[in-house]
Design a protein that fits this description.
The complex is a heterodimer of chains A (179) and B (652).
Chain A: H1 6-24, E1 29-30, E2 44-46, E3 54-56, E4 65-70, H2 75-90, E5 95-100, H3 104-114, E6 120-124, H4 128-132, E7 140-144, E8 150-155, H5 160-171
Parallel strand pairs in A: 4-5, 5-6
Antiparallel strand pairs in A: 1-8, 2-3, 4-7, 7-8
Chain B: H1 2-30, H2 33-37, H3 39-62, H4 69-74, H5 81-86, H6 92-113, H7 119-143, H8 167-196, H9 202-232, H10 243-268, H11 272-295, H12 308-332, H13 347-377, H14 387-408, H15 422-443, H16 450-465, H17 467-474, H18 481-506, E1 508-514, E2 519-522, E3 525-536, E4 540-551, E5 554-559, E6 562-566, E7 571-575, E8 577-581, E9 584-595, E10 598-607, H19 609-627
Antiparallel strand pairs in B: 1-10, 2-3, 3-4, 4-5, 4-6, 6-7, 8-9, 9-10
Classes of the chains: A alpha/beta (179), B alpha+beta (652).
């Protein structure tokens, strides 16, 4: 083999890595996350609306919940806010928010102005919990089952379509009802 | 109506780019003179169409047409006119269109400049540029069309990202992209030379002014980006090794190597296949930069513009372009034989080291940038690589590079004749060490072991780059622009080394909490906090602090850092206050309201930091000087420079 072929061989390898990279890149829809099928990372953070309280993952064991990462600095989060409010009105599954690297006062006024869809909001000032959950960028939403296992992850704004096609069916599977 | 016109113009531009590519490659290949003759009109037509599309998009922004989705997403009726124009390239779709406009502009320039070149070759160059342009136009139309309508129209726009509402960043993308796109010209010249089988050293000479110009723009673009990050992001850093920054830095490193290896190929007919490969690599890295930033493969935390269909498209395009060029290379390059040899100690060997070290530096940055991706692909977990990796590894190749530069610049072509220069070398080194020692221990104090070493290298580079021009001047010889350009550019590099060393070693940084009337002393300065007052702008409101700075009782400045809240996007930005004093930049950033009138304030004193950007500008000026040398303008088919080894040393 002559040495002039080396560049193209190296390039081919790079293409393979990039192609895998694309498959792992946040897709519109499900992301094959390493977290799916594993236990949701534990957290204990101050409650945004009442900093004296603590939001703990251990308190959420035994029921389904949606874990939604957001921030007032995130434009896309505004886009999904309406959908979150509808999820709240539907009352099918509790919604836990993770306010990511945000200003508490602003986050509170955001919820006051736009309506608060969350059952509880954990304030992650330093972004440590977001790293644990492998968050790429806000918004991201995780569905966690009563055993504390992440069963679904969405990168990007939550839409009606995703709610109806991906999240509701998982909630109503045999064994899921009544929890 | 305008958006539809723009859309239509873009489709026509795609067709014309297709014709340009087809005739440009096919004409010379099948010997059809009339096909070749159609290339220049296609180039002109494509430029007019792309310019029309850009004009239509800008008109939609200026006229606040929020029925255009892209306008609605990136502008607002309260946005000042200047930013409504620059909002055109404020997001993905528009910046891609800007890329295409600049490529079309370069292509027109090449079609005019290449009139002096052999016709077949010039047609092939334009053909290759046509392929590049076709790919980007297709990409825009298929995945990122900026002219899509919104139905129903938005009442008002979502506003331009507040951190982009800044004059520095408004002009940054055009300059940076001019540099990126300019490497397409070097790439096209290399591909044309390989298609032609014309692999003597002429193509290298033809390519040099284009490459040097592109390199100068890229240098300016990177410096502007760094300057913007310094004063706008509010953290006071000037380089973060962020994937986006690395994406522009890698082509710069490869381009710098290319500028030097082209010199060797042009002068001495050596490194031929290596130069071809570098030309391909420099442009590939420009395209890869686009890919990394646009595909969402490496996601920046602050944006959510990732779209995998775009990623797949760009990847396919990369495979066609780079894969094609590298295949051509694997087929043609083995025929190349170097016709001349050189001795160790000759200028050629120093330029060889220059290339090796620059490529190592580039590979280091490349590895660091792609490491998170590779580790993710191999399921090794999430990995983040930052300054602790980049700073030391980058230095490993940069320090020897700087040391070799000062020696190599004294060496003659072909033969190692450093013996006669030993005295000059030693003299400049000693002078540099004295000056740098004065800087490190006299003016500033402290720093690490590396501080005086790096400062000495910086001063040494500057001193040695003047030896040759001064020598010529004393002997009454003229100093050609290429030599002058080289001297100026190397002066810029030396200044950059000094500035970076000083900044890294002597920066003082404090975060303090201040109540109104309270003051704090940092680095010999006294900062008195007078309190905050509300401020209001066209599309933001916020607070501004007044801080009085004094030094030994004497007033220095009154500084007013602000914290702004942009009303539409609810985004808070920190507007830093920066003042130059005694060669140092004082930077103040307003932090958080701590209650009871107290605020946290970040105070930073960075000595010589402005010199970093000034140095980059000087490098770019050097590039412009070198690119404008007469020898590139009168080169119609002249014979390769006759026995360069015997001629007095010329620019490298």
């Amino acid at each position: 083999m002559n040495r002039f072929i080396l560049p193209i061989v190296a390039f081919a390898l790079l293409v393979v890595v990039l192609a895998i990279g694309i498959r792992h890149a946040p897709e519109k829809g499900t992301v094959p996350s390493v977290l799916v099928g594993r236990a949701a990372p534990a957290f204990a953070l101050p409650n945004l609306t009442d900093p004296a309280q603590t939001v703990r993952s251990s308190d959420l064991k035994g029921r389904w919940y949606l874990f939604n990462v957001w921030g007032t600095w995130c434009f896309e989060c505004r886009a999904e806010h309406e959908t979150l409010l509808e999820v709240r009105r539907a009352g099918v599954v509790p919604l836990i928010g993770l306010d990511w690297k945000d200003d508490d006062a602003e986050a509170r006024s955001w919820l006051q102005q736009l309506g608060n869809p969350y059952d509880a909001v954990a304030a992650d000032h330093i972004g440590r919990t977001a790293i644990d959950w492998g968050v790429y960028g806000a918004p991201e939403t995780f569905l966690v089952n009563p055993q504390g296992v992440v069963v679904y992850k969405l990168v990007g704004p939550l839409t009606h379509e995703v709610w109806a096609r991906e999240i509701l069916p998982r909630l109503s599977r045999p064994g899921a009802a009544g929890t | 109506m305008l958006p539809e016109l723009g859309h239509f113009a873009l489709i026509l531009a795609l067709l014309l780019a297709g014709l340009q590519a087809f005739f440009g490659i096919g004409g010379p290949m099948f010997g059809r003179e009339r096909w070749s003759a159609a290339v220049t009109p296609a180039v002109a037509g494509q430029f007019v169409m792309v310019a029309t599309a850009v004009g239509c998009l800008i008109a939609s922004f200026v006229g606040n047409d929020f029925s255009v989705r892209y306008v609605a997403e990136n502008s607002n009726s309260a946005l000042p006119l200047f930013y409504r124009v620059t909002a055109m390239w404020g997001a993905h779709e528009g910046s891609l269109l800007l890329w295409i406009l600049l490529l079309a502009t370069w292509t027109v320039a090449v079609s005019i400049g290449a009139a002096r070149l052999p016709r077949r070759f010039a047609v092939r160059v334009l053909g290759v540029l046509g392929i590049v342009s076709f790919g980007f136009l297709l990409f825009t139309l298929a995945t990122s069309n900026p002219f899509l309508r919104l139905d129903p129209a938005a009442g008002d726009g979502a506003d331009l990202n507040p951190i982009l509402q800044d004059p520095g960043l408004a002009v940054h993308p055009p300059i940076l992209y001019t540099g990126y796109v300019g490497f397409a010209v070097a790439f096209a010249f290399a591909c044309a030379a390989m298609l032609e089988g014309r692999l003597d050293q002429e193509w290298a000479r033809w390519t040099r002014p284009w490459t040097t110009t592109a390199w100068g723009f890229l240098t300016c673009g990177i410096a502007l980006g760094s300057f913007w990050a310094y004063y706008e992001l509010g953290w006071g850093g000037y380089w973060f090794w962020d994937p986006v920054e690395n994406a522009s830095f890698m082509p710069w490193l490869a381009g710098t190597a290319l500028v030097h290896s082209l010199a060797v190929t042009d002068k001495r007919g050596l490194f031929k296949s290596w130069t071809l490969l570098l030309a391909i690599i420099a442009f590939s890295l420009s395209m890869l930069g686009t890919f990394l930033v646009r595909s969402g493969v490496l996601v920046s935390v602050h944006s959510f513009a990732a779209d995998p269909t775009r990623g797949v498209f760009i990847l396919a395009f990369l495979v066609v372009m780079i894969g094609g060029a590298l295949t051509l290379y694997a087929w043609r390059a083995p025929r190349l034989k170097s016709t001349a040899g050189f001795e160790l100690g000759a200028r050629e060997s120093f330029l060889l080291f220059n290339n090796v070290l620059l490529v190592i530096a580039c590979a280091t940055v490349f590895a660091g940038t792609l490491a998170p991706l590779v580790s993710d692909a191999l399921k090794l977990g999430t990995l983040s690589v930052g300054a602790p990796y980049f700073n030391p590894t980058f230095m490993v190749s940069m320090l020897p590079l700087c040391a070799l530069l000062s020696v190599g610049i004294h060496a003659g072509w072909k033969r190692g004749r450093l013996k006669d220069k030993e005295r000059t070398l030693l003299l400049t080194l000693v002078a540099a060490a004295v000056l740098a020692g004065g800087l490190a221990f006299g003016i500033y104090s402290g720093g690490s072991v590396l501080t005086p070493v790096a400062a000495t290298l910086g001063v040494w580079i500057i001193l040695s780059s003047y030896v040759d021009p001064v020598d010529r001047w004393r002997r009454g010889l003229s100093v050609p622009r290429s030599v002058l350009g080289m001297t100026v550019a190397h002066t810029g590099l030396g200044l950059a080394v000094i500035a970076l060393t000083t900044v890294q070693s002597f920066t003082i940084e404090r975060d303090v909490a201040l109540a109104p009337g309270a003051s704090t002393a940092v680095g010999g300065y006294e900062f008195r906090f007078e309190g905050v007052a509300p401020v209001e702008g066209p599309n933001y409101d916020g607070v501004g602090a007044t801080i009085v700075v004094t030094r030994a009782g004497a007033p220095v400045a009154v500084m007013t850092p602000q914290k702004r809240r942009y009303s539409v996007q609810h985004q808070v930005t920190s507007e830093t206050a920066i003042r130059l004093s005694r060669g140092s930049n004082l930077l103040l950033a307003l932090g958080d309201d701590l209650g009871a009138g107290r605020w946290s304030v970040r105070i930073q004193i960075r000595p010589l930091v402005s010199l970093i950007w000034l140095a980059a500008l000087i490098m770019a000026i050097g590039g412009a000087l070198a690119a404008s040398d007469r020898r590139y303008r009168s080169l119609r088919l002249e014979q390769p420079a006759a026995v360069p080894g015997a001629a007095p040393e010329q620019a490298g």
